[in-house]
Design brief:
The chain contains 29 helices and 21 strands. By secondary structure, it is an alpha/beta fold.
Length: 772
């Protein structure tokens, strides 16, 4: 096919779409099912209608080929485990008794069976359920869900392409099951898994699929020759079968690197590549292998992870370069649109001109369709769209919101000493022990406490004008009083005020900083039914006034025990926002760090002796390629130190991280120079404690002994057993006892019971230590 005919044949497609619905109907239906207010049939009906609505929106916008298989009740990786029969033994009976309840038991756990481990999906804030595999794992094909979704789309008269997690990525994301040797490599199961994938492909072809997309994002990471050989073998096997649909192998989030020649030579009919995160690298690599003659190339030229309008002329230039490198060039977003909100036009509180800078899923869909039209018909066919796009880009570039001279002057004046504590850790630790007088194995929580119905109602009443600010603040004071009283009675050592006044750990601060925009309907799935509204970091950042001092000092006035000041760190403020893309991330992080530094100093001046600056996103924002790690970790750790370094030696700085793989950033954790770090550890059975010990981490640490992402209440004996395992790696004088994460999403009954058990476990182990 000539470049001209490849352009004329251009089609628009996407890999996935937001699942929740305009009003988060899926979340409400699932949580209603869990509480017994919604039956299974009603839940399935909601899901069916949401899929239908999504597909119709896409088709009406001009998308030629809609995705199926991207919709999920909880997580698409968990759906893949069901598809291939990889059900943990402890959940097998529940799945066999009731497939839907068993599915949710794997995701959330039960009182008798722990859930699957949860961690971040590459460098995004989406969480997936980690497959548990072992040498005895037996895979069996169950394509029921995938075939049903495809059938529903085809029945609507749509052209549909099932999108599945690829077999290599599935195994690379998996971990050894409990009881299996830690050095077991799930990739050794590839030959056992491939026939199952082959059966699913056959089932989908029989159901009417012309194309199936197998996503292999794990191949954009650094991979060994053995792993690349496994990918070659997988697609040689699947591609060599005759009873299958056409195969499109997808990748995103970074450059394919050495995996591109492997996939280019594989007997598959097409590749989908990211031309936003790694446009130049993928273009060069594609040209180096001689392109994809006779194959389909799906070009991800619209950023699927951020919310800024696309530079259409730049994207068209990239698409033009790709013509001639493939038999057919189609236009798509760089990845699933799962990672962005649904529709920017729903936002009423953002100034109209600024709103034109933003593109959520529906606007990105329109951009994709426009680009496909321009590629096929020439720029004259989209002249009006290009002119409007140029005006929007110019408006953003010239806005006073994006350039504040005072902020830029302050960042220019920062010196290296601004990011260094005045004394080394051993001297600080001695000063903090004398000042705080905490017991061995001190107990604390991570920050937030349950957000009660009464509290949410009060917040809604304030927004609606049904109560005034005085009435709302009275509710906050009462809530803080209850939280402090409970912690006192339970026996926790370092308390928190519970964050009753906060809607979200990033949004709360963003709403009080200049340079941020807040949305009303910009919901994005974090995990399961947990949806967040990431704020939009649009311009230069500063802090007009104190943000947390008032409520922290009020809580401290209610108790003689130390109350932690609670802040969200600069890297997480970036990672969990839609961050500006018009300057280096390091520059933006420095601006946020300076604003937070002012808050840290004000807390200390108000008498707060323990200040926690959470950085749960430090690991998730780590670039996917090792060669890019040093630059990122240098500015990320410097931003944290710039935030925290201005306090006295006897002020104890904490940080917190959760739900990520920490082993490859232990040195960076050390470089933060925090006095205490708390980390997720319950589901991973204290793996992080062993990683800290292996590094020789010299400071205090609290690996979690209570998994807060499950309604399950761990007994005191279970918490004590985890604590003893932690002591095998971390000396008692440096070990803290705490949950994995904040308690905002939990209910009060399970929170009370779990924290009481946590304190009991700490006391039990203290007694054991004193007797030894």
């Amino acid at each position: 096919m000539t470049a001209k005919s490849a352009a004329a044949a251009a089609r628009a497609t996407v890999y996935g779409y937001p699942r929740q619905g305009q009003g988060r109907e899926l979340k409400k239906a699932i949580e209603g099912y869990w509480k017994g207010r919604v039956d299974a049939d009603a839940l399935r009906a909601t899901a069916t209608e949401l899929r239908r609505t999504n597909w119709r929106q896409l088709a009406e916008a001009g998308i030629h080929e809609v995705p199926t298989g991207d919709f999920s009740y909880y997580d698409h990786v968990l759906d893949t485990s069901v598809m291939v029969g990889a059900i943990p033994e402890r959940h097998r009976a529940a799945v066999e008794a009731d497939a839907l309840d068993g599915y949710f038991s794997m995701a959330r756990g039960t009182q008798d069976a722990a859930p699957l481990e949860m961690t971040k999906w590459f460098d995004t804030n989406y969480h997936y359920l980690v497959p548990e595999l072992g040498p005895d794992t037996v895979f069996t094909a169950d394509s029921t869900q995938q075939v049903a979704a495809l059938g529903q789309a085809l029945a609507l008269g749509l052209t549909a392409r099932p999108v599945l997690v690829g077999p290599v990525t599935y195994l690379l994301l998996a971990k050894p099951a409990p009881g299996v040797a830690a050095d077991f490599d799930p990739l050794t199961l590839l030959d056992r898994l491939l026939p199952v994938y082959a059966q699913v492909l056959t089932d989908l072809r029989t159901a009417g699929a012309e194309w199936v997309q197998l996503d292999e994002p794990a191949l954009v990471q650094d991979r060994t020759p053995a792993e690349l050989n496994a990918a070659a073998r997988a697609y040689r096997d699947l591609g060599g079968r005759t009873d299958r649909p056409k195969l499109l192998v997808g990748s995103y989030f970074d450059r394919l690197g050495d995996a591109l020649p492997v996939l280019a030579k594989a007997p598959v009919e097409g590749l989908a590549l990211d031309f936003t995160e790694a446009a130049a690298a993928n273009l060069d690599a594609l040209a180096a292998v001689g392109g994809l003659p006779g194959k389909r190339l799906v070009a991800g030229v619209v950023n699927g992870r951020n919310i800024w309008v696309n530079d259409l002329e730049k994207a068209l230039a990239t698409l033009g370069t790709l013509l001639g490198l493939a038999d057919r060039v189609d236009v798509a977003a760089s990845c699933s649109l799962l990672h962005v909100p649904l529709d920017a036009t729903a936002e009423r509180d953002i100034e109209p001109q600024i709103l034109r800078w933003l593109a959520f899923a529906r606007q990105k869909t329109a951009e994709i369709v426009t680009l496909a039209k321009g590629l096929g018909g020439g720029t004259d066919t989209i002249a009006a769209e290009l002119a409007a796009n140029r005006a929007d880009l110019a408006s953003r570039a010239g806005s006073a919101l994006t350039h504040d001279p005072a902020v830029r002057a302050r960042t220019a004046a920062v010196t290296a000493t601004d990011g260094r504590r005045s004394q080394p850790y051993p001297e600080r630790a001695a000063a903090q022990r004398a000042h705080l007088r905490l017991p061995l194995l001190p107990t604390t929580t991570i920050g937030s406490f349950p957000q009660t119905t009464e509290l949410r109602t009060a917040r809604a009443d304030l927004r609606a004008g049904r109560i005034d600010s005085a009435g709302y603040e009275e509710r906050i004071r009462a809530e803080i009083g209850e939280v402090i009283s409970f912690q006192e009675k339970t026996g926790l050592d370092v308390l928190v005020h519970g964050e009753a006044e906060r809607n979200d750990m990033v949004q709360y601060f963003a709403e009080q900083l200049t340079g941020y925009l807040a949305t009303q309907h910009g919901w994005v799935q974090s995990y399961g039914t947990r949806y967040v509204r990431p704020p939009i970091l649009a311009g230069d950042i500063s802090r007009p006034e104190a943000m947390t001092v008032r409520w922290t000092t009020y809580a401290q006035s209610l108790t003689a025990k130390p109350v932690k000041g609670m802040l969200t760190g600069p890297v997480t403020m970036l990672a969990w926002s839609f961050v500006r893309d018009d300057q280096p991330l390091a520059d933006t992080a420095q601006q946020v760090a300076l604003a937070l530094r002012d808050e840290v100093n004000d807390l200390e001046a108000a008498g707060t002796s323990v200040i926690q600056v959470d950085e749960p996103a430090l690991r998730e924002t780590l670039p996917l390629r090792a060669c890019d790690h040093p630059e990122y970790l240098a500015w990320a750790t410097e931003a944290f130190r710039l935030t925290t370094a201005g306090v006295r030696p006897d002020t104890q700085i904490h940080t917190h991280m959760c739900y990520a793989e920490f082993g490859d950033i232990v040195q960076a954790i050390d470089d933060l120079d925090a006095d205490v770090i708390s980390l997720e550890a319950a589901r991973s059975h204290m793996q992080v404690a062993r990683e800290l010990a292996g590094h020789g981490y010299p400071r205090e640490a609290g690996p979690g002994v209570y998994d807060i992402h499950s309604p399950r209440v761990p007994g005191a004996d279970e918490a004590a057993a985890l604590l003893r395992r932690g002591l095998e790696a971390i000396p008692a004088e440096r070990l803290w006892v705490n949950p994995d994460c904040g308690l905002k999403t939990r209910a009060w009954p399970e929170t009370r019971a779990s924290l009481e058990n946590l304190v009991t476990a700490a006391r039990t182990v203290r007694t054991e230590l004193s007797a030894s």
